[in-house]
Amino acid sequence: MLDAAAADTKAQQVTLQVVIAEGAKPMRESVTFNIARVAPGGRLEPVDTKIGAPLKIALPQGRYQVEASYGDTSVTSTFDVAGKALTHRISLNAGWAHLRVIPHRGALPLTSAIDWEVLTYGRDATGQRHRVAAVKSPNPRVVLPAGHYVVQAKTRDSLAKHTIEITAGHTYKYTLDLNAGAVAFSAVRGGGGPTIEETVDWQVFKASDASLSKPVTTRSAASGRFWLREGRYIVLARQGQWNGRANFEVRSGNERSISVELK
Highest taxon of the source (predicted)? Predict the structure, then answer.
């Protein structure tokens, strides 16, 4: 660390500014700066880490590298400190996206916690996308470098995907539609017995999953209300040695109740 830089007679005042895009005003945000001195041979010597833009710091003469990080965007650039004060401006070339989920068309946005993943739009040589950002929130605001991305929103019972575009300096609002309906399950004893009040283990599968090996969602409760994407499903219910099964269909925006008989 070069904590004595301000006392160095050759130290100069350096102002590091960050803009969201070229032509934008300097930001006054919690940007993280990681500053390193570029030593002979290109070796980096850590100098300091500071939070808050713009940043004013005194540095001895020499070449430096700074990494500016804001949200899920990081940009690295170099600058030279010579015989006078310097202002160095860094463009993040990034934009904002506000994300939210509705269960079906015409419904209000969900307010419960949602697991969001932002993935690269392009795939690597093995055909895989890579995670760029992840956040748990009903309606997050993310900062991303300009480009295209695939966004996944995972609720307790369903998953929605959408392709988004980020343009430097702009804010976009994206609403993902689960295209889902609500299903309320309950379990009863075989032979016309009463509704079971004890905990039941529920597993829901797509009807196309012939081996019933990949549950869409699971839950342990006496009863449950599930938001499932439109389609055909199979539900398995188990309580002790008692088991039951039912086939059902979900339509977007509809609600239905299903009673599963355990035998």
Answer: Bacteria
